[in-house]
Every structure is written in C-alpha cells, then in structure tokens.
Amino acid sequence: MIQSLEPIIEQHPFFKGLSKHHIQFIVGCAKNVRFAEGEVVFREGDRADQFYFVRQGLVAVELMVPQRGFTTVQTVGAGDVLGWSWLLPPYQWRFGARTLEETRALAFDAACLRNKCESDHDLGYELFKRFSSVITERLEATRLQLLDLYGVGA
Amino acid sequence: MASGLEQTISAAGVDPMLPRIFRIERVRQDTRDTFTMFLARDASFTFAPGQFNMLYVFGVGEAPISICSDPADKREFQHTTRVVGPVTAALKRLKKGDAVGVRGPFGASWPAAEAEGRDCLIAAGGIGLAPLRPIIYTVLANRPKYRRVVILYGTRTPDDILYGNELKRWSAKFDIEVHVTVDRGVHDWRGNVGVVTALISRAAFNPETVVAMLCGPEVMMRFSLLELQRRGVPPERIYLSMERNMKCAIGLCGHCQYGPAFVCKDGPVFRLDRINSIFGKAEV
C-alpha cells in the first residue's frame, strides 16, 4: 500500500502552522528517497533544484579542499533540513553532501516550490521564515565552532 | 559560637582543611592534553557523582579537580585533568607511587535520585565529560531505575575524544543512546561534525520527564540551555556544573562566589532555576 507523505510532512515541526492547502502543495513536490552509505547526494557547484529532510541516517556536508580532500564541515541527521542553496540565486550548491550511513529522506522539488513562492507570497514568506531559522542555527553553530570552545582558556 | 570551619569539622568528623595522603597507582595519558591519575582508595573515602577534591602537590599548591571514576569502585578513584597552571603542571609530573594531598570530597552532586523514573540526558563538552562520568556509571549500574538514557558529547577533533573506548562500549549497549560530535572532522572520522547543541535537537528524550545534566564550557552550556528550553525542558529539571576559582572548598574564602552562592559549597552542580537570574551574566 502506498502511504501518502501528507501526514509525515504535516507532523514535521518545520511545517507546523502551515495551512492545509500549502501543505498539500508541498506534498505534491515531495518524494521519498534513499541513499546508500557513501553515496553523493549533491555536488558542490551543481544546480540546487532539490532540498531534503533527513528521516534517518547521517549526511556529511563537505567541501573539496586541495591537498586535504573532501572535508566535512557539518553533519546533518534525522529531523534536519539538508540544503538551502536552492532558495537564493544562483541556485547552486555551495557545498557538497555525501551520506555517512544509509540515509532515508524526503526530497523536495525546489524549482517547483520557488515558482510557487513567486506566485504565492504567503507560502514564500512562511518558507523563508522557516529556512531563515535553519540558516540562523547553522550560522550560530559555525560561530561556536570558530570559538574553539574546548581549548585551554577558552 | 562556632565558626563555619569548626561546624564543618564537627559535622564531617575530619578537618576539611587537612589533606589526606593518597598514593598514585598509575597515570594514563588520555588525549594530547588530558591525563588521568588513579589513586588508591581506602574505605574511608566515599564520594557522590559530581563532587570534587582539592589535590595538593606538596610545595606547589592546590587545585580543585572533579572526581571522574565510578563511585562504586572501592579499589581506586580517578581524576582527569589537563595542564592549565602550575599545580596541574606539577600533577602531570607525578608518577606511580608519588604522594598527593587530597582534601574532599566537596560540593553538591548530580541528581541521581531525582532522575529515577525519568529520561536522563547527559550532555558534555570537552573535558566536561570527566565530572559527568561518575553519574553515567551510576545510571548504568542502576539502569532499570531510569527510562531513556542519552549521552551527548562534543569535543574539538576525533583525537580529543575523552574516554573513547568507554564511549564505544556505552554506545554498543541497546538501552542507551550515545552521540559524539566534533568541531573539526579530520582523518577518517565518519561521525557527527558540529556543535553539541545540534545533537540536543535530534536526541530522543521526552521533554516532559527528562532530567538534563550538562557540563562543559559555559558558552556551550548557554547554547545547550537555549536548545533544551526550545524543546520545552523546564529549568527545575536542568542541572549544570559550574567552574570558578575555588580555594578553600568549604565556602569560607569567597574566591568562588557566584552571586549569592559559593560554587565550592553550593555547587559545583546547580539546578538551573536556582541560578537562572545570574547564569551567563558577564558581571557575575
């Protein structure tokens, strides 16, 4: 039996408070995806036409550093949003993503949502509020990492 | 009228200002900058999880170091520390068989009894795992008394992970959830990269019943508190271990005054609602 994604999306804290018709539209842009361990989810520089909600597993957000190879700057796990480069031009991934273990996620058609947000500003505002919160969390986390908190005298 | 010191002496039966001599059984280098001293324990020495000792290196001075071993271990007790000043530098130079002066144990402990029948969240940053290790042992030894048990640990790099083998052993258990994260994922690290607060948002616990225990740099605890509050954990079920410049360890000298409290006597473990008005204030 094929189960609708609607209850999953509706109950996700990220979408809490969205109207029924907005949820239904978002459900129409979503699909279940599964990645094997070590699989590339997206590559730095590629077009950002999808974003993900991790349901299970662990994904490394990484950057190719010459002489050092792919370097993980952050990991994203169950319940987390993966990817926000789709929101802003030039719609290209700033970082790459690769699974560290088998991962199940919801993938959203970002191009479809972007177009909808242009025509439905209520939805656009709601999504931008939610993604702003994700971006803020990532910025705070990055600042804390920069502080090197666990060093002597930190 | 008896002085505070005299009252403390009569209550404990021993002079808390008088160090007792203990012998070092061995010293273990844990990470690049942390080491653990194993001291032979006699029957008179008992402690509760979260308490600390004043360790006295003769001719150098004293430093407050939390006890990081299993309270049920009758054979020895342990202190994990790193070199941050002359006393800890002198501690680092001590070898098997050397003597250390020990005053203690002092201070308030983790809420082992209050957490019974509840979910238990233990979040540590860096060397902050050391003061939490005794409560982890206690909870694991009495596992049926607790509901979900979650241990979250953040540190700089994979090489800086303290008690790595124990973390692996704990995470292999089916009835305990262990997540480790590092600020910088180097080498072939395949685990979490990021701050420990991100782990709190993902951890499986019930905010309505959980008792949270935190120890680490104050900034880490501040941001962890924000995440716990966002998940709806009330301040009266959050405990944190504070660090201040402790000298006498019995609330007389005032070096560790923290608002109306003394960290040595009223802490180092505080319930958040009792220090909420001063926690994170730059002036305190």
CATH topology of chain A: Jelly Rolls
Helix content of chain B: 10-25%
Structural class of chain A: alpha+beta
Assembly level: heterodimer
Reading the helices and strands of chain B in chain order gives: HEEEEEHEEHEHEEHEHEEEHEH
Strand count, sense and barrel status of the largest sheet of chain A are: 4 strands, antiparallel
Structural class of chain B: alpha/beta
Count helical runs of chain B.
8
CATH superfamily membership of chain A: Jelly Rolls
Helical fraction of chain A: 25-40%
- Low-confidence runs of at least 5 consecutive residues of chain A: none
Q: What's the total helix number of chain A? A: 4
Counting DSSP E segments of at least 2 residues, the number of strands of chain A comes to: 8
| Average of per-residue pLDDT values of chain A | 91
Q: What is the tally of beta strands of chain B?
A: 15
Shape of chain A: globular
CATH architecture of the largest domain in chain B: 3-Layer(aba) Sandwich
State the low-pLDDT regions of chain B, or none.
1-11
CATH architecture of chain A: Sandwich
Largest sheet of chain B: 7 strands, mixed
Radius of gyration of chain A: 16 Å
List the helices and strands and how they pair.
The complex is a heterodimer of chains A (154) and B (284).
Chain A: H1 6-11, H2 20-28, E1 30-35, E2 40-42, E3 50-56, E4 58-65, E5 69-77, E6 81-82, E7 96-99, E8 103-109, H3 110-119, H4 121-146
Antiparallel strand pairs in A: 1-8, 2-7, 3-6, 3-8, 4-5, 4-7
Helix pairs in contact in A: 3-4
Chain B: H1 4-12, E1 20-29, E2 34-40, E3 52-57, E4 61-66, E5 76-82, H2 86-93, E6 99-106, E7 120-125, H3 129-141, E8 149-155, H4 164-171, E9 177-182, E10 192-193, H5 196-202, E11 211-215, H6 218-230, E12 238-241, E13 257-258, E14 261-262, H7 263-266, E15 269-271, H8 272-275
Parallel strand pairs in B: 7-8, 7-11, 8-9, 9-10, 11-12
Antiparallel strand pairs in B: 1-2, 1-6, 2-5, 3-4, 3-6, 12-15, 13-14
Helix pairs in contact in B: 5-6
